[in-house]
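Protocol step 4 of 5: obtain the predicted structure for the target chain.
Materials: sequence only (see below). No template structures provided, no constraints applied. The aim of this step is simply to have a reference model before the mutagenesis design in step 5. Sequence pasted as it appears in the construct record:
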Amino acid sequence: MKTANSYRTYTDTTLVDFVRADDHHAYTELYRRHAATLYRRTLNMLRDADACNDIIQELFLAIWAKRANLQIRESFEGYCYKALKNRVLDYMSHGQVVERYADSLASFTTNHWSVDEYISIRELSTIIAEEKAKLPARTRMAYELNREADMSYRETSAIMNSSEKTVKKQVHNALRIIRLKISSLMLLWLF
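Step 4 output (structure tokens):
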């Protein structure tokens, strides 16, 4: 019979096997072993303690949520670092896109017409964020890295382990979906 203390003697690989079998004590042990290190690594990248805590919690919640299908090809720590990197990039790019769209729309509206006549910048930013959230995960990641983090298709494809052609298609699809939504809303506001 396994006790809470006996989990400390198991390897990460064994604990992951236990987690796949819904063993919450094994999951807790993995969190105990790795959360602090992951937090420090995230804090070095973001310099925001609250965001770091949120990202680490989301990472471990995602691990538990998909435990039955958890595929870890490298070490658990390596898996966590890769997932953490993706979450940090998502976090950073989300902040940048809202800022960039707000600046862009402010410039556009002050040069052409009043924001009050059509839509406030916040509302449009919210719409864009909602549409982006509806995109498939890989398409959203390609869009954010390429358009929001200003990475080339080549850089984006290297991070995503995809071909440049695939990344271009994903970015094109994301832009098409977001532009379609914005243009249809603009038509509604005009008429």
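Step 4 remarks: The chain has two domains: 5-72, 86-190. The two ends are 70 Å apart (CA to CA).
Proceed to step 5.
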